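[[Encoded backbone]]
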Amino acid sequence: MDFILHMGYVLGILGLIVLSCVVFTNAIEHLGEELNLSEGAVGSVLAAVGTALPETIVPLVAILGAYITGSNIETGQEIGVGAILGAPFLLGTLAFFVTGLAVIFYKNMGKRSLEMPVNTSIMFRDLHYFALAYTIAVASSFIPSITIKHVIAVLLIFMYGLYVFKTIRDEAKTPHSDVEDLDILYLTKFINVSGKFHLAAILLQVLISLLGIIFLAHLFVGQLKFFSALLSINPLILSLIITPIATELPEKFNSVIWIKARKDTLAIGNITGAMVFQSCIPTAVGLALTPWVLTTSALINVAIVYCSVSVVYFNIVKNKGVLCPSALMYGGLFYLIYLIYVILHVKGII
């Protein structure tokens, strides 16, 4: 009976997460219009950072919570590192897959074509920054000096600041997309807002939806922990795979919403921009607050991310700047490969 009740609770939380993401994307699009930003800047910076907050909070709670409560610090660090590595893994595999699947699904529904008019220069910029920051973070796990790791943590934060600066500067040269089909701000359906308070209303809707996403993501993680205890699932699966599924849901749902609206640059930039954020800020937290020594399972996780991202990258190069949804679909295959590896590893087969 408990299993059925908790399963219903999980489904309810998922539904509310989707609703929160719809409200968030609506506010972000209006904020981009208000600030006269292009789709590239909105997707890669505003949406990506906003929806990346839940998975940034999870490792902080796991690591700092262990210190504050005096519980098992090593376990807290392992969960934190798993959540940190799991985030870009989910983005570079499952999020790509879901996005590619959404293109094919809406094509079959007659709502769009298979063509993805993505601004691939934005994708290249994001993926270049991600590859550089992620490689630095992974390589630093082999450095024994804690001091050097702390310096690298500061470097990664600086790199992300540089990325945000260059993104906004470069995208400022690109006019914002047409907003004729932009839905009205949802908050104004309930509150009559005058023109001079429109920006305040946008920011309020962003804040409300973000708090909703973060709160619901934590509820979802709590339910996953319940099921892991009930079904005796190894914490390795929880930290590397299951937990990021909850915290990465905002990126996936936001991108599906934008794919349906044929706003592909926003959809892809939301994912690749979040990958840059995840390779810089959370990894800086890991470098600063944990020994940051990656296990074999973690390094295989990293290798899978590189493989999936490489398929998408070289698909764009091969097709001379055109992204094919089939390349995104390979992310599902790479996710499945790692899932099989984890299950076999937990069972002691490999």
